[in-house]
C-alpha cells in the first residue's frame, strides 16, 4: 500500500508467507483507488498479487464521490467479487471523506448489498489535535497518541453508527481500539442495529507505554491509527470480545521498517502509520483469550475464522471443516510455546511490536487448499500460487432489511391529505 510518502514493506508474497506461518489461510486486503478511480485501483492491485501464495480477497476504499464512482461500485460488486467498501473518517487531505460522501456511499452500499466499513476517527479534530501538540513542542511518537485521543474515535464511531441507522444499512467498524468506540458499538447492537466491531491484535494485547520509550526507533514502530491506547482499554476490548460485543479479530497488518518510520524523526505527523500482526494473530489470541479462560476453543475458531467467513459471505467454503469446504486447516498445539522476534518472523520488517513476547499455543501445521504449507517451522510455498476469492454481496446482515424499510415507510403516516379553508 502506498501511504504517507512511502510503501508498506510487505508485498503479497512476504505478507502472505507470514500469514501462513501464523495459521491464517486467507486474507482480505484493502484496495486503494488510483486518483479516486476504483477500476484503476483494482487493476493496480491485480498486478501486486502476482506474487501471492495463498487465497485472498479484496475490500475497496472510497475516497471521493461522483456518478463515475457510483457506477464503478456496481462493477466491483457485480463483476469483480468485492462486497465491502471502506470509508476513512480520518487522514484529512488524503483519504478522509465528509458526511455527505459517507451518506451517498452508505446508500450505494445498501443498494448493492455491499458491507459499509469505516475507519472511525474524527479527521478534522485529529488535525486540530496535531496542531495543538506540535505547538506544545511535542514532536516525538508520543505526540501521535496525544493528538488523537479516544474521544475522537468514539465520536466518529457514534456518527457512523447513527448515519448507518438513518440509511438502514449494516456497518462494520474496523480496528476498534478504545473503550469509547466499543461502548458506542455495544449500545447500537443492544438497540438491534446491525453493527460489527472488529478489534485488532495490537489493541487487544498492547498499551501505549511504548510510545514514550526514549529510543525513537522503538517508540515509532508502535505508531498506528487509531493509536494503541493506555492500559485498561486492552482489557476492556478483551472482555467485549469474550461477551460478543465485538465479533472477530483482525490485524490491520500494515508494516513499515525502521528507516521508513524515521521519516518522522522530527515530526510524529510524518511517521508512517501501521504495525504488524498477520503472523502473530492466532498465537496471541490463543494465549491472551483461551489460556486466560476468557473464551472457549469454539469461540476461538469463531472469532479468528468462522465469523469472518460469514460476514464476507464465503461460509462454508471458508471458515469450516466440512465436506465440500476448502481444505484450509491448522493444527495448533496448546501445550507448545512460542516466542516472537523480528529475527525469525516472515515479514520483511526489521522490527516487531510484539518483540520478545512468549506464550502458549503454537501453530505447528498449516494446510491451505489441502496442501501442507507450514510444518516443522518451515514454509513450503511458491510465489504466484495464490487464488483470488470472489466475495458475493448480500451477506446475512442484510436479511430483513427490506422488511424493516417497508415498516418504516408504513409508519410515516404521510403524506397527509389536506384541505384549505378560505373566508
TrEMBL record:
SUPFAM superfamilies: Composite domain of metallo-dependent hydrolases, Metallo-dependent hydrolases. The modification N6-carboxylysine is found at residue 86. It is an enzyme of class 3 (hydrolase). One of its GO terms (molecular function) is dihydropyrimidinase activity. Carbamylation allows a single lysine to coordinate two divalent metal cations. GO terms for cellular component: cytosol. The keyword Metal-binding applies. Homotetramer. Belongs to the metallo-dependent hydrolases superfamily. Hydantoinase/dihydropyrimidinase family. This is dihydropyrimidinase. It comes from Ficus carica.
Amino acid at each position: 500500500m502506498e501511504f504517507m510518502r512511502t510503501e508498506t514493506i510487505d508485498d503479497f508474497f512476504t505478507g502472505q508467507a507470514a500469514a501462513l506461518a501464523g495459521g491464517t489461510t486467507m486474507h482480505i486486503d484493502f484496495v486503494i483507488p488510483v486518483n479516486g478511480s476504483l477500476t484503476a485501483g483494482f487493476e493496480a492491485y491485480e498486478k501486486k498479487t502476482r506474487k501471492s501464495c495463498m487465497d485472498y480477497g479484496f475490500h475497496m476504499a472510497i475516497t471521493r464521490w461522483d456518478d463515475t464512482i457510483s457506477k464503478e461500485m456496481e462493477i466491483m460488486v457485480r463483476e469483480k467479487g468485492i462486497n465491502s467498501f471502506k470509508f476513512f473518517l480520518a487522514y484529512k487531505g488524503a483519504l478522509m471523506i465528509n458526511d455527505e460522501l459517507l451518506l451517498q456511499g452508505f446508500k450505494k452500499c445498501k443498494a448493492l448489498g455491499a458491507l459499509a466499513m469505516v475507519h472511525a476517527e474524527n479527521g478534522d479534530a485529529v488535525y486540530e489535535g496535531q496542531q495543538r501538540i506540535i505547538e506544545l513542542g511535542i514532536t516525538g511518537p508520543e505526540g501521535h497518541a496525544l493528538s488523537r485521543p479516544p474521544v475522537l474515535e468514539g465520536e466518529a464511531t457514534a456518527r457512523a453508527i447513527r448515519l448507518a441507522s438513518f440509511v438502514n444499512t449494516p456497518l462494520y467498524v474496523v480496528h476498534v481500539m478504545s473503550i469509547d468506540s466499543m461502548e458506542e458499538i455495544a449500545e447500537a447492537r443492544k438497540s438491534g442495529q446491525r453493527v460489527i466491531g472488529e478489534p485488532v491484535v495490537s489493541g487487544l494485547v498492547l498499551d501505549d507505554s511504548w510510545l514514550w520509550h526514549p529510543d525513537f526507533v522503538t517508540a515509532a514502530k508502535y505508531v498506528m491509527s487509531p493509536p494503541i491506547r493506555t492500559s485498561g482499554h486492552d482489557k476492556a476490548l478483551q472482555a467485549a470480545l469474550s461477551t460478543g460485543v465485538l465479533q472477530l479479530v483482525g490485524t490491520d497488518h500494515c508494516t513499515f521498517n525502521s528507516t521508513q518510520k524515521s521519516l518522522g524523526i522530527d515530526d510524529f505527523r510524518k511517521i508512517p502509520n501501521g504495525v504488524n500482526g498477520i503472523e502473530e494473530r492466532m498465537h496471541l489470541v490463543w494465549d491472551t483469550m483461551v489460556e486466560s479462560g476468557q473464551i472457549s476453543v469454539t469461540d476461538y475458531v469463531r472469532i479468528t475464522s468462522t465469523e469472518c467467513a460469514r460476514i464476507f459471505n464465503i461460509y462454508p467454503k471458508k471458515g469450516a471443516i466440512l465436506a465440500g469446504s476448502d481444505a484450509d486447516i491448522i493444527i495448533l498445539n496448546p501445550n507448545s510455546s512460542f516466542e516472537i522476534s523480528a529475527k525469525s518472523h516472515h515479514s520483511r520488517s526489521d522490527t516487531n511490536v510484539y518483540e520478545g513476547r512468549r506464550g502458549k499455543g503454537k501453530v505447528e501445521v498449516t494446510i491451505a487448499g489441502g496442501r501442507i504449507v507450514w510444518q516443522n517451522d518451515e514454509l513450503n510455498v511458491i510465489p504466484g500460487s495464490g487464488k483470488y476469492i470472489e466475495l458475493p454481496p448480500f451477506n446475512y446482515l442484510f436479511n430483513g432489511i427490506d422488511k424493516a424499510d417497508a415498516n418504516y415507510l408504513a409508519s410515516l403516516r404521510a403524506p397527509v391529505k389536506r384541505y384549505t379553508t378560505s373566508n
